[in-house]
Amino acid sequence: MNDTAHGREIFFEITKLDANLRVCAIDSVSGLEVVTVLPASTPEKAAQDIALKKLLWRLEKETQTDEQGDAPSRRPSGKYI
Fold first, then answer.
1. What is the dihedral of CA 3, 12, 46, 32, to 10 degrees?
2. pLDDT band at 76 (very low <50, low <70, confident <90, very high)
3. Does some domain include residue 81?
4. Amino acid 63: pLDDT
5. How many angstroms separate the Cα of 25 from the Cα of each of 48, 57, 68, 70?
6. Residue 77 covered by a domain
7. pTM for the whole structure
8. What confidence tier does 8 reach under pLDDT thresholds 50, 70, 90?
9. Structural domain includes residue 11
10. How many domains does one find in the chain?
11. Beta bridge partners of 23
């Protein structure tokens, strides 16, 4: 499933793990990925919104770090193709 935010395509992966949902949001431009774990009773749209907010926060944090001229504290995890 995908969505758009600030001109970026965002991919979501939702996996049910016992009583939890593992929600992964991936930015198509930077490849940055965030994971959020929520109760399984969370509606799909709300789960996506929460993961999207976390992803946008991380993107903003990465941008601020780059603008200050400092190297990011760590390289974003994930595999690049």
1. -90
2. low
3. no
4. 81
5. 8, 12, 26, 25
6. no
7. 0.73
8. confident
9. yes
10. 1
11. 14, 36
